[in-house]
Polycystic kidney and hepatic disease 1 (autosomal recessive)-like 1 (Gasterosteus aculeatus), 247 residues
Amino acid sequence: RVDQLTPNRGSSNGATRIMIDGIGFAQERQFQLNPKDDNFGNRVFLVSDSLSVPCDVERDSTHGNRITCVTRAMPVDQYVVRVSVDGVPIPDAGVCRGAYKPYRCSFFSVRHRTPTISTLSPASGPPGSLVTVRGIIFTDVYGSNTDRSSNGLDVRFLRAYMGGMPCELLKPNSDELYNLQLDSESSNWGYMSCKMTGSYVGHHNLTYILDSEFGRSLPDKKLLRVSALGKLSMFQTFAGKTRKKKK
């Protein structure tokens, strides 16, 4: 049975870790005889009136009375959790005692818990560029730091990516951040700077992930430009000019 899930709300762009408490879940450390058997173990779906969205189970953080899964991007709405154990769905009567759309067994995808990217500067540069995001970032705390954000929220930056490669918030070999600040102690708006890694030349998108309820950032549509290949991207890297050495 399923008793509750926490947190009950999170980013509409996914990457919110939710914990589902109950009884009778599969022990995810079991040995799987048939790796191709999709029904093995716990499978989680978040179901609205019109959509059923998988929630990706973290096997290492799951045991017989708790499943941890990571949400995917999904439209703003209420989603009731549905769990299958070794291919057998837990019946509706076993989800929050069969209540209709129960709050305790629901996840709400909401805008006010979705980090945003409103501007990105610069919009192009060589690989390794330092870029700055402005948006609703919710926090000025990074990584394993347990401090609360200066605006009082208990949330921190986990990581940022540019084109699938890490975008580093910390200066090399130090604990000093390039730039992570909120507009004021009463604001969720702020700036974050990170340094791109990787040497790929082409079109990239930046994304960052917060912990707690917040999850993955959502960019303003006006940031996305269509590349020559027809892909939407917010940043373009180009090959830097190299000077030839005189012989």
Remarks:
- The chain has a mean pLDDT of 91.
- The longest strand covers residues 77-85.
- DSSP finds no helices and 24 strands in the chain.
